[in-house]
Amino acid sequence: MLVGRKYRLSLTAEQAEMAEEFGNICRSVWNTALEQRREYRRRGAWMNYVPQAAELADAKREHEWLRAAPSHVLQQTLKDLDKACRTHGTFKVGWRSKTRWNPSFRFPAGNLITVERLNRKRGRAKLPKLGWVVFRWSRHPGGEVRSATVSRKAGHWYISFLVEDGVLPPGHHAGTPVGIDRGVVVAATTSTGKFYDREFATTGEKTRYRRLQQRLARTRKGSANRRKTVASMSRIMVRVTDRRADFTAWTANRLTARHSVVVLEDLRTKNMTASAKGTEAEPGRNVRQKAGLNRAILDKGWHRMELAIRNAARSTGTQVVLVDPAYTSQTCNRCGHVDAKNRESQAVFVCTACGHRGHADVNAAKNILSAAGHAVPACGDLGVTRSVKQELPGPREAVPVRLAFELVGIPRL
């Protein structure tokens, strides 16, 4: 299988300057090629990778600055653009801004890349034109390197190797199926009654980030103070993003190791987090409430969770199934009654028809599992030895929500 291995680079000042130049050249090639594609589409014509690659070769003869970057790196940029335009559409592919885009470029020729280990903590890789670059040896690549991507994030440079590890995808999985409900309060809830969640930003980081946002609003565009403020904000967000990535990978590993089928809702996260501002002619409604919901959805990493589960499923043989998310949170899993009033609050579900009472997220997860054609037994045991109680002991008001379930996952900060 093809797997990724990411390491932190220790570039020299000359190498960092050269990598910055490569990234700027790739950004310029991306924007120029995208503008050409859009102009062709406006005329009713098409432009693809082959003629653009030929024009790039001609442009390198005329413009010396284009020759600073390796040819196959620029060609790979055109290939990435071609794939993005075919997948999303020419006018939906975004520009690469000088201030908002982190430089990155890919070396697609694995035969030109050499990786060696120097000592217990350091390794090095030989890249075209960059030469030998040293990186932190956190683990062995574990296979043949197919390509390498160099990127910058919050002031640090990283290298990602695409490696062929020689491991064949497993076949049958002996686990049980499970439904996953993704929420804005608890990141993931399973149909067996487990809750996976954690906080990704500490209270101090939230306060610090809010103050930096206020400082950013008072700075002048293009000033040195603005660049420093943006860099400080990036350092905080990198830590938050890394914690979220670690949590989703940790959760996906445990779900795919224990279950043969993982059922998720087919959510369009990008559409769900679109702004509600509207236009001047038709202004949006409840804009502030919608903005808060968007932040909550993005903070829990719904799309990242799905990607992590799909990635982990390749190593375990787990099947990932997507189902229609309509009415999963309003349907009673016991009798099938659909009513918006069934959900009394975010965590409490009480069926208005049969009186079934339970945790709303667990009920939704069971509906998601049933929508994929997997039956949920009355006790929710799914063929395992220990059953999971479907109802809480006693009135819901007497049992605090925090004590009604136990969070499974990385401890909160």
UniProtKB/TrEMBL annotation:
Stretches assigned to the Cas12f1-like TNB domain: 302-368
InterPro entries in the cross-refs: Cas12f1-like_TNB, Transposase, Transposase_put_HTH
Domain Probable transposase IS891/IS1136/IS1341 as annotated: residue spans: 162-274
Domain Transposase putative helix-turn-helix: 1-43
Biological process terms in GO annotation: DNA recombination; transposition
One GO MF term attached to the UniProt entry: DNA binding
NCBIfam families the UniProt entry points to: guided_TnpB (NF040570)
Family recorded in the similarity comment: In the C-terminal section; belongs to the transposase 35 family.
Protein name: Putative transposase
Lineage: Bacteria, Bacillati, Actinomycetota, Actinomycetes, Streptosporangiales
